[in-house]
């Protein structure tokens, strides 16, 4: 009898955990739903170890430049924890923003770009390779 109760309790627990976990994931927005587009370029190109200017072109879903936004950028080395940097990009006009970074090591980096403007609060991760 104890074995039947134990098995019943385990099945109930599995069903409850499955039901709770089903609503926890939300699908990523499709490209059609994306409100902000961010393109990144570097100077020098390709980006190398040392001083690099990161240039971001930010447009809305219709391709119009987003001007007057506050933009924070952080960079994390994805292959080695603890190597991070962050700062505020400055507006250059025409939806372009720039920030100078000093990459101390080659490899894969993740840029996290956070754009804020009245009614807009958008964050995106962008992969970049430093040579």
Structural class: alpha+beta
CATH topology: Immunoglobulin-like
In sequence order, what are the helices and strands, one letter per element? HEEEEEEE
What is the spatial order of strands in the main beta sheet? 1-2-5-4-3-6-7
Residues in β-strands, percent:
over 45%
Cα(first) to Cα(last) distance is 66 Å
Number of beta-strand segments: 7
Report helical residue fraction. 10-25%
Shape: flat
Mean pLDDT: 84
**CATH architecture descriptor name:** Sandwich
The count of domains is 1
Work out the helix count: 1
Q: What would CATH call the homologous superfamily? A: Macroglobulin (MG2) domain
Q: What is the C-level CATH assignment? A: Mainly Beta
The biggest beta sheet reads: 7 strands, antiparallel
Descriptive overview:
The chain is α+β, with helices and mostly antiparallel strands and 131 residues long. The protein has a single domain (31-130), classed as Macroglobulin (MG2) domain (Immunoglobulin-like, Sandwich). The protein has one helix at residues 2-22, and strands at 36-43, 50-60, 70-77, 84-93, 96-103, 107-117, 120-130. The protein has a 7-stranded antiparallel β-sheet, with no helix packed on it.
């Amino acid at each position: 009898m104890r074995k039947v109760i134990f098995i019943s309790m385990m099945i109930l627990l599995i069903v409850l955990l499955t039901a709770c976990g089903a609503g926890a994931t939300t699908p990523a927005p499709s490209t059609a739903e994306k409100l902000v587009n961010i393109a990144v370029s570097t100077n020098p190109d390709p980006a190398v170890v040392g001083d690099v200017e990161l240039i971001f072109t930010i447009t809305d879903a219709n391709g119009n430049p987003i001007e007057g936004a506050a933009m924070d950028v952080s960079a994390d080395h994805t292959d080695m924890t603890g190597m991070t940097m962050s700062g505020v990009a400055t507006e250059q006009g025409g939806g372009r923003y720039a920030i100078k970074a000093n990459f101390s090591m080659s490899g894969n980096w993740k840029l996290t770009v956070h754009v804020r403007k009245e009614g807009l609060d958008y964050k995106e991760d962008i992969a970049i390779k430093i040579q």
